[in-house]
Amino acid sequence: MMQEGKGRDRATILGLTSIGHFINDGNMWLIPGIILPILSQVGVNYAVIGLLSALYAAISALASPLVPLSIKWLGGHMRAMALGMFLWAFAIGLSSIGFLIHDLFLVYIGVVLAGVGAAYYHPIGSALLSATYGGTAGSALGINGAFGSLGRALYPLIGSVLIFTGSVSAAYNLWVLAFITLIVGLSVLLYGIYKFDVKAYRRGNNKDDPPNNKSTMLRVSIMLIILLFVITLLRNTAGQGIQTFLGIYINKVLGVKLSVSYGEILSILLASAIIGQPILGWLSDKIGRRFMASFSTFAFAILFIAFIYTGNLVFAFFAILFVLSNFPLIMAVLGDLFPREQVSWATSIVWNGAVTGGNVLGSLITGLLAQYYVPIYGEVGALEHALLIVLILAFISGALWSAVPKPPKRSKVPLFG
């Protein structure tokens, strides 16, 4: 992709994509942080909640091919990014209306459709910054990534202030966040139409591109990619199970009322990744990728088990730090293990298969297990038992890193996810 943006356009696109990242990642945590706990409070069972979260993840994956098609149909990346914002606004607005008129089916539809909106931002945001900044996109991506982390950390608190401040929960106030998303989408759209946009492009043959050598592909270790796929799938299944039910756990098991205090607790836990990713990146340079990837997986499982047995939020803080900060390490290991011409292939398999599969399975398995145990242990004990069982997968994932060969080289770990 050619470097297209200059001067003021660069700064504006960085600003718009950073705000977009803040809102997109914030909206993504409205679902497990705000909407799902409210649904649980009004009597929706664990199995339905797990299914909703799984459908959200599955729809997001299935909608991914729409992103390049939207860029082509709309004639630019900014316009497609705006479409993603509009889809988010529609989904959140639909859930808000559902809560207002006490129609949970509309809330369910809003949660599932949010997966379509979630599919848009990340591929478009990184492409916009790479196109406008070219070889100097690293710092821009870092700033942009920091806004995403801030949005993820702050939105549970913002949502709690909007919804739980009064004596009666006002879940329909989600319309405020839908409106903000809509306004940002309109700003992005108008800028893309009247000022500057990165047009849809086709990748042509480049003499500098590595040759597509079938014999090289045959030398790829299929067993290695299968191993990394299994490691990532197991880890992400456990991690997603925790993330889906974290808010509900804080509310039902710890007994923290859905309130502004609840939002503060959840935001502090999620803020752990802001410091976690740089620290794990630095440690991986000093100690090694495989060790840190394995260690962080064991660490989040052990720390979350300690949290379950003690209720101490300090354990939860560091557990979430490791949950949210591990994935860049896996991507770095892929970059180290595979030749340059095969990295995108390996990354695609791990991202599209293992990560997506883990997102779906983690929510679904945890929800079904928790619902199965409700008649035996009650709602509180059922969720604890379900999470403890799912965390077994993290221990298996961490142990399997010992079978991954030592990388022949090292690459820099991205500090922001």
From TrEMBL:
GO molecular function, one term: transmembrane transporter activity
Coiled-coil intervals: none
Transmembrane segments: 12-40, 46-69, 81-101, 107-129, 141-164, 170-194, 215-234, 265-284, 291-309, 315-337, 349-374, 386-404
Gene3D superfamilies: MFS general substrate transporter like domains
Organism: Vulcanisaeta moutnovskia (strain 768-28)
UniProt domain Major facilitator superfamily (MFS) profile: residue ranges: 13-410
Entry protein name: Major facilitator superfamily MFS_1
GO cellular component, one term: plasma membrane
Protein localization: Membrane
Highest rank taxon of the organism: Archaea
Pfam family, one: MFS_1
Keywords: Membrane, Transmembrane, Transmembrane helix
Membrane topology: Multi-pass membrane protein
Major location category of this protein: membrane
Entry keyword annotation includes Membrane: yes
InterPro entries listed in its UniProt record: MFS (IPR011701), MFS_dom (IPR020846), MFS_trans_sf (IPR036259), Sugar_transporter_CS (IPR005829)
